[in-house]
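Expect sequence, tokenised fold; for instance:
***
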Amino acid sequence: MANNVGVAVGPAIGGFIAAVSYNIAFYIAAAGMLAYGLLMGFFAFETMPKASCLSTHPDTAKERYGGYGQILRDRPFMSFNLSITLTTICAALIWVLLAVYAKQNYGVPESQYGLIPTTNALMVIFFQFAVTQVTKRFSPLPVMALGAFFYALGCGGIVLGQGFWGFWLCMVVMTVGELILQPTASTYVAKLAPADKRGRYMSLYGLTWGIASGVGPVFGGLLNDKRQPAGYLVRRSCRRVGQRVRLPVAGTALSATGDVNRTAVKCQYRDNLTSPSIKAQSLGIGRAACS
């Protein structure tokens, strides 16, 4: 909860500071991390009891600094980690690259973009407990599949976004996936792990975010530099298709308009000829000419 409060407040304030000066923003962030390190170094203390109940088991003592071989041979767990890594790449792309993409291509300022991650944190703060109360009633694998779907939907929606509100909506959709997936995944790993290896299972599960954050933005940045962003490619294709469709449609419309106009003129001319007033005028002109 404290982390989400920081994510809610930090980007909102940092966006306004970065709009003034990036140097000031980084100086403040460095000072905050230094203060955090000093507080941890001087005021934090170890909470684990000195005599752990697990130390009485000889097998546990032998695996204290190892035991990962058995975990790596756990195929269901490793397959789950691979799936979570692929899903988390979507979130890493949004968190790392969306700010640059939004500013360079659509001119979204830092002060405005900071509200997007703030929305994510506020949704987690206010809705996490309620969503978890619903998702825990169902089997974890379908629930995590649904959460991954929302992640993909939010990431794919960036292609269609054209400004702040489009990107904000994509963040809302992705946050829904986070609310569904992350608590369920943590509970799934905790139940899957043996009691004496739960910490090691959770550590490997925690590496999925680090791997996704290292792999996703790197390849995403390379694609962004080597190729144009997908959003521009899609919209350019739509414009080209629209131009190709508009020209024949416009020509057909003009032709139809011309036919309608010509038909209207002919009908008006025929009506005029058959009207009594026009016939009388024509007779009068003819008599005048004869005389």
